[in-house]
Amino acid sequence: MALFFGAAAARAATPDLTLTATIEADAPEPFVGEMVILTLKGDYDAFITRERFEGVELANFTWLQLGRDIWSKGRKNGREYTTVERKLALYPQKAGSFTIGPFRHQLTIDDGTGRWTETAVVSNAVTLTVLPKPSTGGGWWLPARNVTVDDRFDMDTAHLADGATATRTVTITAVGQTAAALPPPPKLVAPWLIAFIAPEERTTTLTRDGPIGTVRWQWRLRPSKAEPGNLPAYDIPWFDTRSRQMRDIVLKSARFAYATITAPEGRAARTNLAAWLLPLLLGLSLPLVAALAGRRPLPAGTLGARLRRLLPDREAPAMRLARGRGDLRAYRRHAARRLARHGLSPERALAPLDAALFRRRAGDAAGSAAPVDLGAIDRAVMAALRRQGARTDADTRPAHGGDAAPVYSPSSSR
Fold first, then answer.
1. Which of 17, 179, 269, 303 would bridge with 213, disulfide CB 3.0–4.6 Å?
2. Which residue windows does the record flag with biased composition (Basic and acidic residues) (predicted)?
3. Hey, how many other C-beta atoms are within 10 angstroms of the C-beta on 294?
4. How far is it, in rounded angstroms, from Cα 363 to Cα 370?
5. How far apart are the C-alpha atoms of 407 and 397, rounded to whole Å?
6. What angle do CA 167, 173, 177 make, to 5 degrees?
7. Please, are residues 349 and 224 in contact by the beta-carbon 8 Å criterion?
8. What is d(CA 86, CA 71) in angstroms, rounded to the nearest whole number?
9. DSSP conformation class of 293
10. In which residue ranges of the chain is pLDDT below 50?
């Protein structure tokens, strides 16, 4: 592509053509992975019609060009010059002493008489000593001129509405690094937490002073139990190339709790169960004393387990009502309580429902729930409850030949 600079006035027989290579770093001997700016500047006392830099090959470095070449005109010693400037960001990949360059700029020059000549302008070479990267906590190495973090929740996680799902968005920006150099997202894992992470977004913005890398992470978080939980803070170390010191950015800790629940779910369930059992046991005590006279009674735990199965489960009608309305959140809440009461893991039995509730569809900005067959999930929950009941019966059934007394219940005392 032709570039036309300068006036059409006749030039000197031998034009002044100079190409200079310079390097700029935040330390005389930068570390591996630290940004180094290479500037190629050409000053040409000539009328240039075409130009191109020969392929830049930099062994032991990764690099990127910082925008397009900048052309300008000026005067020096009373003569008019055309100036071109190209900037590259270099990232050394290993330690050692390296020679960078020389570089070649191919020019087509018009001598003012309509005659074009080809010439190559060669730059100087520069040397650079690179130090090995220092040891860091966790082995992560992020050299940059500045790193900032924006960490926010879309609601107060310490006072969540019942069944609410919080969205956490973390954006990290590093000046002097590309997005590819930023760390991977941390794993937000806790026994009490359901967490789904959206695909991360990485972008690199080019400036004349170097690239600016950005990464954005977003999680949808929901407690799986009524008990409060604390998500610990997460530190990401980085090296400040200007102050030459290690620093940290911190993803803040967060407390998760439901505002309307003041007691742990397990404790509330035991209290409510006791409220059901106590009047029943008092009412049955007199006839049972007579019926059990002279026999060895079952252990209290076994008797209580069998009595619980005879009582109506207060979560069952709530589950049926939620299933009829298609209310996924209400169904999950009641089903989780019922499963936990029978010693089953809600997270395992309700995993398909959790995925539908808390994982956004790809490209769905509104975050609506994915389609789910609530009837199939309910059948699976009921099957798990039946299997658990069968296991409990097997555990409490006396061995063959034993002399354990039978369990007395309304259905067996005839």
1. 179
2. 390-400
3. 5
4. 12
5. 10
6. 140
7. no
8. 9
9. T
10. 1-12, 262-271, 275-276, 286, 289-290, 360-368, 399-414
